Amino acid sequence: MTYKVGILGATGAVGQEIIRLLHERQFPFSELKLLASSRSAGKVQSYGDQSWTIEETKEDSFKELDICIFSAGGSQSEMYAPVAQKHGCIVIDNSSAFRMDPNVPLVIPEINPKAALGHKGIIANPNCSTAITLMGLYPLHKMFGLKTVIASTYQAVSGSGAEALQELKDQLNAWSNGQTIEKNVYPHQIAFNVIPHVDRFDSEGHTREELKLLNESRKILQLDDLAVACTCVRVPVFRAHSISVTASFENEIDMVSARKAIQDFPNVELVDDPDNLKYPMPINYSEVVPCAVGRMRKTNVIKNGLSLWITGDQLWKGAALNAIQIAELLHEEGAIR
Question: Would you call 230 a catalytic residue per the annotation?
């Protein structure tokens, strides 16, 4: 069976990866409709020997579609997801618009695939840092029972989109040529710097990005009492996020079992041989399907504590790949139309 597939936000960084991965993973689509804002309408988008004309998003854009992956931001999702839903088009949404809606499943296919099958027309993709962090923590949770998470993220600029990627490139070029470094996307220079500020701050000093790891992890893992403390940091890396985690568990940690849990979990690799300088790094996990876990060691700071380092491509597992994996799951289960 084949499907008519749409991509809302097709011209963005995530949209570009969705087009690529739909082809590379051979998702069974018979038609591909690329949707964007009016200013992008009429442009031609190509992949391989195929090309499509970008269409302006309108309410009737979803009438003939079976499934549409949204990657155009929360306001567009709030506007058009209910419209697509009424037309019988399943929405897989990359924004934060519906993640905490109790009627919308929040899905990482390796972790809670059954949640997707109970959808009512909209399925939410988790935040990129949440998805990558939980790919490392969930195998350990199944084995030992997760209680608390203390995390610091090292987030690549591609998480902010194509303009941020270009800003880092421009700043590096300006520095190397002795020119003035300009900033537009971020409040501070990102080249040769780290910025402990991702998304907006609340009245208590947390950013929305930091609270997403708490709230989304609780929903995905169905752990209402999970305690999470997180600091999100933007770093001058082009692609792939990393997360430093210290977690506590219900049961005592056995390192042999912990390593085996990581090794046996789908789409996660154990890269943990520091004596031979082997540990996960963004440069090795850009445009790669699996996430990686390393630097695993017990800690005595908290009871049944374990520290680890997790790396994954946030444009893939944190967005485009996870969305397509959800579509693949629906296809395999016969849950599209």
Answer: no
CA 84 → CA 32, 40, 78, 191, 330, distances in Å? Answer: 15, 20, 11, 40, 17
The SS3 of residue 281 is coil
Which of 230, 241, 291, 331 is catalytic? The answer is 241
User: Of 31, 30, 39, 49, whose CA–CA distance to 11 is shortest?
Assistant: 39
pLDDT digits (tens, 9 = 90+) for 206-263: 999 999 999 999 999 999 999 999 999 999 999 999 999 999 999 999 999 999 999 9
How many Cα atoms sit within 13 Å of 133 on the Cβ side? 33
DSSP state of 181: P
Tens-place pLDDT, residues 248-302: 999 999 999 999 999 999 999 999 999 999 999 999 999 999 999 999 999 989 9
Domains of the chain, CATH where assigned: 3-126+319-332 (3.40.50.720), 130-314 (3.30.360.10)
CA proximity to 124, closest of 199, 69, 57:
69
Active site (annotated) includes residue 241: yes
Catalytic residue of the set 68, 89, 128, 232: 128
**Residues 6 or more apart in contact with residue 315 via CB below 8 angstroms:** 13, 14, 17, 158, 159, 239
* Helix (H), strand (E) at residue 37: none
| Closest residue by Cα to residue 311 from 274, 276, 269, 252 | 269
